[in-house]
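Two entries, shown back to back:
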Amino acid sequence: MDVFADIASEAMTSVWNKTPRPFQKDVIARIMSMHCGTNYPQASLLVQPTGCGKSSVYQTIGAIDGGVVLILETTLSLGADQAQKIESISSQTGSIKAYQLDGIKSIASRNNLIQHLKTFTPSSHNTVFLFSSPEMLTTSHWTSLMIHLIGKKVLKLICIDEVHQYLSFGLTFRKSFCSLKRRIFDQVVDKKNVLNRPDELPIYLKVPLLCMTATFNSTLVNLLEKMVGIRFLPSNYFWSNRRNMEKRNIKIEFVCTVQSLRVVKKSILSCLSKDTQKKCIIYSNTATSLESLKERIDSWLDTEVNIPTLIIPGDTLLITGNIEPELKLAYTESFTTPFKQTTQHQFSPRILLATASCIGAGLDCHDVYSVIRIGFPSSTLDLIQEMGRCGRGRSSNDTIPTDNYVLIINLSDFIYMYERIYTKEKSDEPEKPYYVKMRNEVITETDQMQQQVDNLMEVLKLLVLNSGQCIHYCLERSVSSPMESIPNDVSGDTCIHSCPVCDGSMKHNVLPIKKKGLQDFLLDTFIVRPPSAPIDANTLLTKLNSFPNVGDKIYARKKSTKAPDNKYLQITILQMIASKLIVPNCTVENPKVTFTLGVHENRKPYYVIDSVWEGFTLIN
C-alpha cells in the first residue's frame, strides 16, 4: 500500500499540481491495489467534507492507470464543469481527454467516440474520462459500450459523484436511475468469483466502484447497496470523523417569519456591501417564489439602495430546474467566476437564486460568504449540503465566524413540504412500470414517503425542539462515520457563538411555555370541544391565538394575557408537531394536512407523557 501511496502522491503533484491529503492517498492506494496480484476490485465509499478534493481521487486514478474512467453525475452542470477542468490539463499532457456524454448531440460525434474507445486495450496509456447523467447511460448505445469496455478490461473505474443525490433523485422523480442496477452494475459483478456468495450481495467486482459524497448515514448505505446490488465492506469506508466535518466558521441563524424579504435584504447588505468579491446564494423550494423574489430584489437594488456606502454592484441570477442544461451550465460558470467591476451593460452576478436540489452539491465558489435558505430543507443532509456552499477554503477553527447560513421558516413552509411528500408530480408521460418495479425493489413508495417524513421531522426537531444541544454538533453527528464512537455528554463541545442555541439568539424565536397551559389547550381543542371538521394549520393557529388568557396560561406573560406575536404561536405549533403532541395527517388521495391529537400506542395522549416535553423550555 505504501508503494501505491507514493505513486498517488507523485501523480497528484506532477499531473494535477496538488499536494495530496491523507485520505486521498489512502483511497487511491486502496483502489489501485485492487488491480494487482490476488486482489479483486470492490466497492468503496468516500465521505469527506465539502471542498476537500474528492474529485481528485478519480482524476488521479485515471491519470495513473490509463484506460476509461466513468463518472456518473446527477447534475449536468457539475459534470460539464469537471470535464472542462480535466480538459485544461489535457492540453498540457496530451494523453488525457474528457467527454460529457449528455453534451454529444450529433450521431456522427457519438459514433466516432464509441469507435475510438473500442480501440483501447487494457495496456493503453491514454486516459479518457466519461461524464454522464444516469439517464444518458440507460440508452442502448452507451450501455452497450460500457459492457464492451468492462469485458475488454478497459474500464478501470466507475465513480458515482454526489451519491446522496443519486439515491434521493433515483428513488423519487428520476426512477430511471434504478434501472442501472441491471443495465450496468450487474455487468460489473464478477459472477465467476467463488468468493461471492449466492445468498448475499456480491462483494467482488470486475471494475472498482467508488461512491463519493459529503453527507451520508447508515440508512443511506443500506439503500445504496440495494440500489446498485453490491455490498460495501466497512473496510472500504473512507469516512471522515466528526471533527473533520466541522463547519463552525459558518454562523447559523434561524428566523421565523412570513416576511422573508426583510430578512433577505438585511443579510445581503451585511454580506455584500463591504466587499465586492463576496457573493450570496438564496435557496427556496419553489421556482415561483424565487421569480417573484428576484424581481423585488432587483427593484430594491436599483432604486432603494442608493446610499453611497451601501451601493451593491453586480447582478442577480435565477437558476431553476426547468431551464436547459446548457444554459444552467453557462449561468453557473458566470456566478463562480470572480466578480469584476463591470460597465453597466456587462453581466456579473453576485446573488444567485436557485431552487433546492437544482444547484447545490458540487457548486464550488470560494467567494460565497452567505447562504440564505427560505423554507424547510427536506433533510439535515440537504441542510448541510446547502450550508457547505459557503465557508469554502476558510478555516473552521477561527474564533470568529467568517460566513453565514440564514434559515427562514414558518408554519406554512412546513405544511407545504409535508404535503409535497404526498403529492404526485404531474407529468405528460406516465411512469414506466419497469422503472417503478426497479424502485420498489429498493424501497416501496410507502416506505419512501415515510422516510421523507422522518427526514423532514428531523429538521423540525433540530430547529424548534432542540434540548439545548449545539446545532453544529448535531449536524456533525448526523453525518459522522457509523464506526466512530461519539460520547453522549457533549456539554463541553459547543460552537460558543455560531448557532442560535450557543449564542443565545434562540430566545428571539422560541418562547418558554407552561406545560399545564398547553395541556389545557390540547384538552379543550381536541377532547372537551372536539372539532366538527378536520383542523388545518390556520384553524389551529386561530384557536391558539384566541385561547382564553393565552398570554398568561401558556406563555406566562406578566404584562398581558393576550397572545404574543404570531411568529411565537407558529413556533409553538411546530413544537407540538415535532413532539407528537399533535399529528399531521395526509394521504396521496387527499394531500392536505389536517391535525389530530397525538395518542401513544397505549392509548394515552402524548401530552400526559413526561418524556415528550423534554425538548421544550418549560416554566412553572
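entry 2 starts here
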Amino acid sequence: MRRINVEITENTKDMNPLIFGHFVEFMRDCIDEGMWAQVLKNRGFDKRKDIPEGVVDGNPEVAEGWVRTGSKNTFEIELDAEESLARDGHAQRINCYNAYDGYVGIAQNNLYLENKEYSGYIWMKASGNVEVEVCVREKEGGKIFSETFRVDDAWKKYEFTFCSKQRMDRGTFEIILPGEGEIWLDSASIMPSDNMEGIWKKVFEHICGLEPPIIRYPGGCFADCYHFEDGIGDIDTRPYRRNRHWGGFTDNSFGTDEFVSFCRKIGCEPMICVNFGSGTPEEAADWVEYCNGAPDTPFGRLRAENGHPEPYGIRYWDIGNEIFGDWEIGHSSAEDYADRYLEFYHAMKAKDESIVFMVCGGDGDDRSQEWNETLRRKIGASMDALCLHMYALKSMNREKHDNRDVYYAVTGSVKKYEEILRESYQLMNEKSEKKILTAVTEYNLGTIVDSYREQTLEAAVFNAGMLNMFMRNSEKILMCNYSDLVNGWPGGCIVSKNGDAFGTGNYYVLKMYSESGLDKIYEVRTDSPVYSTTGKIGNVEPLEDVPFVDLVAGRDKNGNLVLFAVNRSLDEEFCVVTEKRYGEAEVTEICSEKTSDMNSPENMCMIPRTRMEEASEKGIIIRPHSVNRIRFAGRAAE
C-alpha cells in the first residue's frame, strides 16, 4: 500500500466560511413544491387550462388543476378576471341557478397528505348570503373533514384546520355549493401546521443541518426574468407568473420577505441576484431600497407596510446571471454588459453605498479570459467580486465513454477549475485600485437533466475536491454556492417530495465540511501519485498530473488539527502519514461500494461513518473513491 506523506507548514490563512454557501432558484421543483409547503397547485385559480385546438372540454372555464364536481343542479362556471384578488389573475365563479337535489362544486384531486394536522383557508364572496361547504375526502370518497360557512357579499378569508389520520396520496379538497346561489372563490391554501417559515419541516431540518452561511436567490437563469414586486405584499394578491426561462408557473408565494425571514430563521446571510436580463437599473435600485432603505424612503416604507419596519441590510448583490450565454434572457457581449452594469452600479449604490457588487464573469468552464478582461478594463474598481459558474459535465455530446474515463475526468477537473479560478483572480487584480475577489456562485458535477448522476458517489468525490480547492484558495474567494440546495437540477443536495426529504451523498459531504468549524487553513505539501486523462469529456479537456489524493489541512475553533483527504482512485487504498505523530484521530468517511451508488430513502448508502484510529507511522488508511475528515483531538499543527 502506497503512502501519502503530509507536511503541514507553519504558513496559515484565514478560513472563509462563505465557501460553504448554497443556492435556490425558481426552477422545476426547487422552491415551489420542493421547499414551499403548499399542498395545492394553482391555488389562486389564476391559470387557465391549456386546451388543444379542436378538443371539446365540457368545463373550459374551470381553472387548471381543478375539476368540477356534483350533479343534478343546473349551473354556470367561469374564470372571472374582474373579481380576482391577485394581480392579473382570476377568481373562480360558480352560479347555481336551479337546484335539483344535488350540488355543484370544484375540487382538486390527488393530494398527498401525511398523518398530521393541516391549516387551510379560502377566500370567498357571494351574491347575498350563501351556504358553502369545504371538505377533504379520502381516496374512497369518504369525508375526513367538513365545515360549512355562511358567505356574504364581501371578500373574506375562511380558515379551517383538519387532521389526516393516515398517509394518503389520493386525497381531495372540495368546495361545495349545495343549493342555489352565486359565489366567487380565490386564493385557497392547505399547508401542514408544522411548517417552518412556510418550508416543509423535514426539508427545513435538513437545511439547518448544513449550517449554510449564505444562500443565493432567486436564480440562476430565472433571476433575469424575475420582477421582485411580484413577490412582495399580501401573499394572496401576488400574480401567478409564467417562468419565462424554465417553463411552468409560480404564484410568487416565496418572495423577498419570505426568503429573508427563512434565512434569518436558519441563521444565514441572504444574497440576491438582480434581474439584469429583462429588468432595469431603476428596478434593481428599488429592490435595494426595499431591502435596505429606511422606513421613510418610498420602498422602505412599503417594506414597513408589509410588516418589516427594520431594514434587512442585505450586503451581497449579484448583477445578472450568465449573461455571456445565448441561453440567457438579456444575453449580450462583454462590452454591452459592462456598459449596462455601470448603470446598475450607480443606481443601486445611490440607494446603499455599503452593498457588495458581484459582476457576471465569463464562462467558468472555459479557460478564456476574454470576457473577464473586458470587465476589468471597463468596470475596474466599480466591482467587488467576479462571479464564475463551474459544471464539469454539462453534456457528454451524445458520445459513449468508458465510465472509468468519465469518473477520472470529472473528479480530476478540479485541477482545471483551480487554474481558472487563480487565473481569473490574477487578471482582475492586475493594476487594480482594490482587491477584487472571485465568487463561484454555482458549481456541481454537471447539469445533465434527469440523469441523476449528480447524486452519485462520483459527484460527491468531485464536490469534495471542489471544497478542498476552495479552502486552498480562500483568500481569493468571496463566496461559493453549491447548486442546488433542494431538487432543481437533479443535483439538489436535498431531495424533497411531498414534504419527505433525504440527503444525497453531496449533502453529507457539504455537511461534514461545513460543520467542522475551521478558522485557519494550513499550507500543506504532499507527495500523492498522479494520473492523466486523454480526450475531452463534457467540459473537461485532457488533464495532466492530477493527484490521486487531494488533501487540505486546517485548524478548528477548538484548536484541533483537521485534514480533509479525497481519494480519487477507483482501485487503490492509500496510507496518509503526517510528518509529526498527532496521536489518536477521529476519522469520518463517506464512501460506498460503487461510484454509481446514490442515496434513496430505502438505502442510505452514503452517510458519514466515524471510527477512532491511532495515527502511527503506518498512517491512516483511506479507501478508494472516498471522502475523509481526519481530526486530531486536542492537537494543532503549530
